[in-house]
Design goal:
The protein has 488 residues and is an alpha+beta fold. The protein folds into two domains: 189 residues, Chloramphenicol acetyltransferase-like domain (Chloramphenicol Acetyltransferase, 2-Layer Sandwich); 226 residues, 2-Layer Sandwich (Chloramphenicol Acetyltransferase), CATH 3.30.559. It has 13 helices and 19 strands. The strands form five sheets. Strands 7-11-19-18-15-12-14 form a seven-stranded mixed sheet. Strand 8 and strand 9 form a beta hairpin.
Length: 488
């Protein structure tokens, strides 16, 4: 008897052009801390059941590289114990509290004052965030034919850690928001409220381009350098890595009062210009990074931008959700003359001005079309962001609107409600919701250049940031953090 064909065994979904970009062939982990004891088997079952809904099934597929080198997703016609929708692993330390575990006791948590804490080196939380033996690269992962999503839970007698690991070819950060929301609905038995997945088989971003129409127009952001100038830029970039290499990744906790103090100070120097709290926090970090330089130095800050709600080719969010990478970039170039003595408010205003100019639909369409044309030619995505040869590059991503802390509601899985906070202080988060989370890259923190994530707000309106910068920049940041403690 002949073996079943692939069509009989699997339902094949495409991996869209932007998802398949080589820069997405990395694995990310999101480690969520809950201060309740959760039924982790119930969590797993709800996630597996969600992946039986319509095109949510795509998330349960196995990545496969075809003979022409392209990625596709093969979803089992029926999920079984041999071919599950999710790779589930659980660790049980329920005989001890989280405060008794040698590593978990160091998980950053809210305090009364601002502080920074390393999550690298001895404080690397990957043993709680990534299943043991998880592949370190895409080639190894493809060979395992494992589900795309790995769920790792760690149970204590007073808390639960829940980690979700996936290849970035699956979707972007907003895709995770949609997953957490739908997972929560499934857990609550609200199947009829689970949103429909849009664009699972046809890439909605294809509407941005046609083969016969080349991308034209002028990009509003900083300009790309090439030839000798590009060579010189690389030399300066490597020089910076040698003397200002990011060495430590830390979480920064800013109590509500501290975050408001930074925003208030920025507003004093922003004139009549509109800036957000996120603008102020980003500018604060950038200013501290540049203050570590012996002399003012030009900086280009690269921002990730969510395309949902900005591109008319995407359906209204009420029609369903897009589970793919719909991300563009915007660049803020700050010359040495701007950096010299610039206030946080001045940097925030200039950053918002440049980013706003680059995130109109016309500008985002232009940039995304150019990137997609490069990808169709089999090249890496080409981005225009180098204003000067000596420009230092800083990467940032503001995840506040992704609202993971506020989106996940695992209340139906609570077995035992957690106690109050430290020293008996009143609990601030609703039952079944997370306290905070860590974002980790499976292979290690990004250290090619300075980078920071605004992780977002917790239920106490406190801000969390994840920052990777040089020791010299950390000295400046810690000085500022200490100063905030005195003011608030």
């Amino acid at each position: 008897m002949s073996s079943p064909s692939q069509d009989d065994q699997y339902d094949v979904y495409p991996v869209h052009l932007g998802d398949a970009a080589s820069m997405n062939e990395k694995f990310v982990s999101w480690l969520f801390r809950f201060n309740d004891v959760l039924d982790v088997d119930k969590l797993h079952l709800a996630l597996a059941q969600l992946l039986e809904h319509g095109d949510w099934r795509k998330l349960g597929g196995r990545l496969h590289r075809t003979s022409d080198g392209k990625l596709e997703l093969r979803v089992p016609r029926r999920f079984t114990s041999e071919q599950p929708a999710v790779a589930f692993t659980k660790q049980d330390f329920s005989s001890m509290s989280i405060g008794e575990h040698s590593l978990a006791k160091h998980f950053p948590e809210p305090r009364d004052v601002a502080y920074s804490q390393s999550i690298a080196g001895d404080m690397d939380f990957r043993s709680l965030a990534v299943p043991k033996g998880f592949p370190s690269n895409m080639k190894q992962f493809l060979a395992t034919q494992a589900p795309q999503i790995a769920l790792l839970t760690t149970s204590f007698k007073d808390a639960t850690l829940v980690s979700v690991v996936w290849p970035h070819t699956l979707f972007d950060g907003v895709g995770l928001t949609h997953l957490l929301h739908a997972w929560s609905l499934q857990l609550a038995g609200k199947d009829d409220e689970i949103p429909r997945v849009l664009g699972a088989r046809e890439d909605a971003l294809d509407a941005l381009e046609t083969d016969a129409q080349a991308a034209t127009g002028t990009f509003a952001g900083p300009k790309l350098v090439s030839g000798l100038n590009l060579f010189l830029f690389i030399v300066f970039f490597l020089w910076h890595r040698l003397f200002y290499r990011p060495r430590d990744t830390r979480m920064i906790f800013l109590p509500r009062a501290a975050a408001e103090a930074i925003y208030g100070e920025a507003k004093k120097h922003s004139g009549d210009a509109f800036i957000t709290q996120g603008d102020a926090l980003s500018a604060w970090v950038v200013q501290r990074i540049t203050a570590a330089e012996p002399a003012p130095h030009p900086v280009t800050v690269m921002h990730l931008v969510n395309g949902r709600g900005r591109l008319s080719c995407l359906a209204d969010g009420r029609a369903g959700v897009y589970l793919q990478n719909i991300v563009s970039t915007a660049f803020c170039h700050l010359g040495a003359d701007v950096i010299a003595g610039a206030s946080v408010g001045a940097i925030a205003v200039e950053s918002r001005r440049q980013v706003a100019a680059q995130t109109t639909e016309a500008q985002m369409t232009l940039l995304l079309r150019r990137v997609r044309e490069s990808l169709r030619r089999g090249k890496r995505a080409q981005l225009e962001f180098l204003e000067t040869l000596r420009s230092r590059v800083v990467f940032t991503n503001n995840l506040t609107r992704a609202a993971y802390v506020q989106t996940a509601d695992f209340g139906p899985a609570v077995v035992r409600r957690g106690e109050e906070g430290e020293e008996g202080e009143e609990r601030r988060n609703p039952e079944g919701t997370m306290v905070n989370y860590l974002h980790l890259v499976v292979n290690g923190h990004i250290t090619a250049t300075d980078n920071f994530y605004i992780i977002g707000k917790d239920h106490g309106e406190n801000y969390w940031l994840m920052v990777t910068v040089s020791d010299k920049a950390w000295t400046r940041l810690d000085e500022s953090i200490a100063s905030l403690g005195k003011k608030c």
